[in-house]
Design a protein that fits this description.
It contains 8 helices and 10 strands. It is of the alpha/beta class. The chain binds adenosine-5'-triphosphate and magnesium ion.
Amino acid sequence: MRAAGRSDIPPAGNFMKPDYRAETRRTLITGPSGSGKTSAALCLITSWKKKNPAGQLFVFDHKGEFSLRLPARQLSRPGQMQAAFERGATVVFNPHVCFTGSLDVAFQFFTDWTFLACSQGPAREKLVVIDELQNFVGAARSDIPRGLSCLAETGRCYRTSLLCIAQASNFVNNRLRSQFNQVLAFRQNETRALDFLETCGLEKGEVASLPEKTCLLRQTERLQTERYRLRFVRNRPRLERI
Ligand SMILES: Nc1ncnc2c1ncn2[C@@H]1O[C@H](COP(=O)(O)OP(=O)(O)OP(=O)(O)O)[C@@H](O)[C@H]1O
Ligand SMILES: [Mg+2]
């Protein structure tokens, strides 16, 4: 399995049989810097892992934060990623070795590679994590790397969930935002960010007045909202329902 390119598409026989009824989550976590987004993501990853012990995790780790906080070994080279993929191990990708100074290209490589990995066997649950999404997509409709749009739009058929983190939802283009079925929001006041959260079913006033380290989790398909407080217990983040 290699990264996608025009002459580099794997034979169709390698693809998993699509499962159109697979239950997957496409989650967006938003909030200003330091509000608790990455910590909340770690909590969601932990609960996903509990629910899917044989599931496989893929993380684009350009800040090295996930390898420290999960913790997990960083992988830099496609060969290491391939070996981890085949073992069913976590793939935490450090883009700075092979793509020094070219984060955009690294992101394209990672999302293409991960989509191909996720769409091929073996048939297990997958979760793809992207922090600081606003660095890699723009607000324009076309500003979305191909691999990411495949993960967001067709990943669900291959039992692939997506967990994205962005400082403000209005930095993320509409085509991608429309794919999220779960939104976790910390307090924010930016009008356009609040407009999007309102379209997801959250009340602007409630989001704008959330206390520190408190967030709302909105399931957009089930029309359910829950409130959580982020705490740290023995250095580990925990989301407690309040
Ligand atoms: N182990 C810990 N114990 C106590 N507090 C912590 C711990 N880890 C992080 N924090 C604090 O929790 C807050 C949230 O951190 P986190 O990294 O989740 O924020 P963030 O929203 O992802 O920030 P950024 O946008 O800068 O990435 C910060 O104030 C941080 O100092
Ligand atoms: Mg963070």
